[in-house]
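Structure first, sequence second, as always.
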């Protein structure tokens, strides 16, 4: 399990490195380089618009790679998604600016960002199922949290490189060529990830399905037809996690540098400290999910986010690095209380034959609802003078909507469900991701009910 979880974590970290390095560049340099005729505010909005395209592509990528994962196995998803995202990221670093090729520059940026999102949309489902379907029941939450550590590692790696370049280069050098270096580094990281994943074994549930001839013919159609309500609820439930994370790591970076006049090195250091702590506590929270259930932690995390958004904006508006870091830490701890357990939670909601598609599409639908819109909406809402309280109101509203969605989802931890009397007790078999094809029908009944 340690070898499998490490391979899953490494690949997820590399893929999210590719995705995050674009977000950092969008906050710092892409506006003036690719949208020079716009005002500074409009240029930032346009850059965040291209950032959002990656999120719009993620559900399509999860449907495409989910089909591959449910029809041909989880392993091909791990390799194909990593290769696609890595190549697209390297290509972003090679795109000429608007000054060189005019409107073709932002058009190419949009296309490559779309391909990035397509690859990342497939990554999460494959990586999480690699651990969830191999893991023992009592520790499924813990092992499934390893891919959830990957985003933190990828963010720290991406922004660590940007921070080092920002400190070592002049502003002119960074805008001229320095911003491209992190994109080029993605090529080496992708090769390392492919090497780590080359010997990964197929999961037992998929082997059981393939051996019994019970693979889904059209996984996406089956998910939409039989589990559309679950799909919408999981997308809405996870929206707050994306909204909070990208408010902290992307919007606040642009706001603090452009509106508060802080140096990008200082703000990046504040954000990175908070993200590092988030990564460290992820497996600890996941252990709580194994003991006490997935749903209670998700409800607690949503509540914490709803309560903390106004303090977050107040602390950010001070411009004090220590207080800003405190605000970021509080927001990300609320977010990780949910996201540490969703690696086990989402796969347990779906039967094995459509699990790769269902879990991945639901997860990435949350990315569209929360991640794609937040930097753009928050930048627009913060356009006036004074602290951006309207941003806090927006994030609080998203948190409350997600809280309502989590309240309508069932508990899936097999140990807890088995202890409950009544019809729901049958869901324990459904939640057992390692039970193989024989358990397929039960999760569908437990969820649809």
């Amino acid at each position: 399990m340690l070898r499998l979880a490490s391979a899953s974590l490494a690949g997820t970290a590399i893929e999210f490195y590719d995705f995050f390095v674009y977000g950092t560049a969008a906050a710092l340099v892409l506006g003036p380089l690719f949208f020079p005729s716009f005002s500074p505010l409009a240029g930032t909005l346009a850059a965040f618009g291209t950032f959002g395209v990656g999120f719009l592509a993620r559900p399509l990528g999860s449907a495409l790679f989910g089909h591959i994962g449910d029809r041909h196995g989880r392993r091909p998803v791990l390799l194909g998604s990593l290769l696609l995202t890595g190549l697209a990221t390297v290509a972003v670093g090679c795109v000429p600016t608007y000054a060189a090729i005019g409107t073709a520059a932002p058009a190419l940026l949009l296309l490559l960002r779309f391909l990035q999102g397509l690859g990342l949309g497939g990554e999460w489902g494959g990586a999480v199922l690699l651990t969830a379907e191999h893991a023992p029941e009592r520790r499924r939450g813990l092992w499934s949290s390893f891919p959830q550590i990957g985003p933190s590692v990828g963010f720290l790696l991406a922004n660590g490189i940007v921070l080092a370049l920002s400190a070592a280069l002049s502003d002119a050098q960074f805008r001229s060529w320095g911003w491209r270096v992190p994109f080029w580094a993605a090529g080496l990281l992708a090769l390392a990830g492919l090497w780590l994943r080359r010997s990964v074994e197929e999961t037992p549930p998929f082997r059981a399905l393939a051996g019994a001839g019970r693979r889904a013919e059209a996984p996406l159609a089956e998910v939409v037809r039989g589990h559309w309500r679950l799909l919408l609820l999981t997308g809405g439930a996870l929206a707050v996690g994306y909204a909070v994370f990208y408010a902290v790591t992307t919007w606040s970076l642009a706001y603090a540098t452009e509106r508060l006049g802080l140096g990008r090195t200082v703000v990046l250091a504040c954000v990175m400290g908070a993200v590092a702590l988030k990564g460290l506590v992820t497996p600890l929270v996941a252990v709580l999910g194994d003991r006490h259930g997935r749903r209670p932690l998700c409800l607690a995390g949503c509540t914490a986010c709803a309560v903390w958004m106004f303090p977050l904006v107040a602390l950010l508006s001070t411009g004090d690095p220590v207080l800003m870091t405190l605000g970021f830490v509080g927001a990300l701890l609320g977010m990780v209380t949910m996201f540490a357990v969703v690696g086990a939670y989402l796969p347990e909601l779906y039967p094995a034959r459509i699990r790769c598609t269902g879990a991945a599409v639901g997860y990435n639908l949350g990315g569209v609802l929360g991640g794609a819109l937040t930097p753009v909406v928050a930048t627009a809402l913060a356009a006036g003078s004074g602290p951006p309280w309207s941003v806090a109101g927006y994030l609080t509203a998203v948190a409350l909507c997600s809280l309502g969605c989590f309240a309508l989802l069932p508990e899936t931890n097999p140990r807890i469900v088995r202890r409950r009397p009544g019809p729901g007790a049958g869901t324990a078999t459904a939640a057992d991701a390692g039970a193989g094809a024989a358990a397929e029908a039960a999760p569908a009944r437990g969820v649809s009910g």
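Margin note: The chain has one domain: 2-197+218-436.
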